[in-house]
Specification:
binds iron/sulfur cluster, 15 helices, Arc Repressor Mutant, subunit A, nine-stranded mixed sheet
C-alpha cells in the first residue's frame, strides 16, 4: 500500500505473550506463565490498554471504526478472564464495534463462564487451537489439553453464543499417520466449525523439537506421507463444504477470516502489545518483543516501535504485495495493483505470469492473477519467481 492508497478497511491486532506451558514445536513470542505472573500480567494488561488509548483514536479519526479486531498470542485466554475482557472493552470503546472480533483460545484455558464473559465483552469469533484430536499426539507435541477437553471447549463456546468458530489443526506431526490425520479431521468436522486452519509442522530453531531432531529423536512422517496428508486435506475439506480461500485456510461460505484476509490484501493494521507487528501508511514495524521492556516503555511514554523496513523500496513493496495476495484463492487484484503502484501488473510481472500459466501453476481471470491448486502446492517456488531481483 502506498501512502496515497484508499483505505476502506483497517484492523487491529493485539498480542498476549503468555501461555500456560510452551508447546514443543512453538517459536512464537510467548512465555510460560510462572508463579510470579499474576502481577506482570496485570501490568501488561494496563500497558496494553494505555497503548490502545494512545494509538487507536488517531486512526479512527482518519479511517472510521476498525473493521476487525484480533486478539492473538501466545494464548490470550491464559490471562485471567477479567483482564482479557477489560482489554477487549477498551479496544472496542476506542475502535468502535468491529464486524469481526476474534479471540484465540487454548481449549485448556477456557470454561463456560470465561467464554460467556468474552462473548459479552464483544468477541464474536473464537479461534480454538486444537491441533489434533488424538491424545497420544497431543502429548507428543506438548499441548496442555486432551481431545475431549477440546470438544468440551467447542461446545461451551457454542453455548456461550459463538456462532463463528475456527479450529486450528496440524499435520506432519511426529509419528502421525494418514489414518491418524483422517480421524482428527473427522472429529473436527463432526463439530461443524465455520472455519478450519491447517498447518504442516515445521521444526523451528530453538524449540524442543529442533533439539530432539538434532539428537535423532524426532520421528517425522516421510516426505511422501506428508505429501499424501496435504493432498488428502486439500481435497477433503473443500469436498466437505470448506472452500480453500488461502493456502492454509478453509471456510464455509461467508466465514472467511476478514482480519487475516486484510493481511493478504494489503489492508493497514495497527499492532498493539509486545512483539506485535503493524502496517500503516506503507510502513511496517515491530513492537518491542521483551514483555518487561515493553511495559516500562509504555509506562514512561516512550515509543515501542522499531521500523522493519527503512530501506524498503517500491520494488520490495510490489514483491510483498504479490506474495501476500497470491496466498489467497482470488490472488492479485490487478486493478488494485495498478492503483497502488501506478503501473499495470503485466508491465512488472507479464513474463512470470505467462511462464507459470503455461505450466498450469497460475491462472488468469479478467481482474485477477491467482495460483491454481498445483501452484499452491508449489507455493514457494512460484513466490520466488515474483522476486524482482533488485
Ligand atoms: S499454546 Fe500456542 S502460542 Fe502457546 S506455546 Fe503452544 S502453540 Fe505456542
Amino acid at each position: 500500500m502506498t501512502n496515497n492508497a484508499r483505505v476502506t478497511q483497517w484492523g487491529i491486532y493485539a498480542h498476549i505473550p503468555y501461555c500456560v506451558k510452551k508447546c514443543a514445536y512453538c517459536d512464537f513470542v510467548s512465555s510460560a506463565v510462572g508463579k510470579s505472573a499474576a502481577r506482570e500480567m496485570k501490568a501488561y494488561a494496563a500497558a496494553l490498554r494505555a497503548e490502545i488509548l494512545r494509538e487507536v483514536p488517531p486512526l479512527r479519526a482518519r479511517w472510521g471504526d476498525a473493521a476487525t479486531v484480533y486478539l492473538g498470542g501466545g494464548t490470550p485466554t491464559a490471562l485471567p478472564a477479567q483482564l482479557l475482557t477489560e482489554i477487549l472493552r477498551t479496544l472496542i470503546d476506542a475502535a468502535g464495534i468491529p464486524q469481526e472480533c476474534t479471540v484465540e483460545a487454548n481449549p485448556g484455558t477456557v470454561d463456560a463462564h470465561s467464554l460467556a464473559q468474552l462473548r459479552a465483552a464483544g468477541a464474536n469469533r473464537l479461534s480454538l487451537g486444537v491441533q489434533s484430536f488424538d491424545d497420544r499426539l497431543l502429548r507428543i507435541i506438548g499441548r496442555i489439553h486432551t481431545a475431549q477437553e477440546a470438544e468440551q471447549a467447542f461446545r461451551a463456546a457454542r453455548a456461550a453464543g459463538f456462532a463463528n468458530i475456527s479450529l486450528d489443526l496440524m499435520y506432519g506431526l511426529p509419528t502421525q499417520t494418514l489414518d491418524d490425520l483422517k480421524t482428527s479431521v473427522g472429529a473436527a468436522l463432526a463439530l461443524a466449525p465455520e472455519h478450519i486452519s491447517v498447518y504442516g509442522l515445521t521444526v523451528e530453531e530453538g524449540t524442543p523439537f529442533a533439539a530432539a531432531e538434532a539428537q535423532g529423536r524426532l520421528t517425522l512422517p516421510s516426505e511422501e506421507t506428508a505429501e499424501e496428508m496435504y493432498d488428502w486435506l486439500t481435497a477433503e475439506l473443500p469436498a466437505r463444504g470448506y472452500a480453500r480461500y488461502e493456502i492454509s485456510n478453509f471456510a464455509r461460505q461467508g466465514f472467511e477470516s476478514r482480519h487475516n484476509l486484510g493481511y493478504w490484501r494489503n489492508v493497514p493494521y495497527l499492532g498493539i502489545g509486545a512483539a506485535a507487528h503493524g502496517y500503516v501508511d506503507g510502513v511496517r514495524w515491530g513492537n518491542e518483543p521483551a514483555t518487561e521492556k515493553y511495559i516500562r516503555a509504555i509506562q514512561t511514554g516512550r515509543s515501542v516501535r522499531t521500523p522493519e523496513d527503512t530501506e524498503r523500496t517500491r520494488t520490495n513493496a510490489m514483491e510483498e504485495y504479490a506474495f501476500l495476495a497470491l496466498r489467497t484463492r482470488e490472488g492479485i487484484d490487478t486493478a488494485d495493483f495498478s492503483r497502488a503502484f501506478g503501473v499495470g501488473i503485466d508491465e512488472v510481472y507479464g513474463a512470470v505470469i505467462e511462464k507459470y500459466s503455461a505450466q498450469g501453476l497460475i491462472r488468469r481471470a479478467e481482474h485477477h492473477v491467482a495460483l491454481t491448486d498445483a501452484g499452491m502446492k508449489l507455493g514457494n517456488e512460484v513466490f520466488a519467481a515474483f522476486l524482482l531481483g533488485t
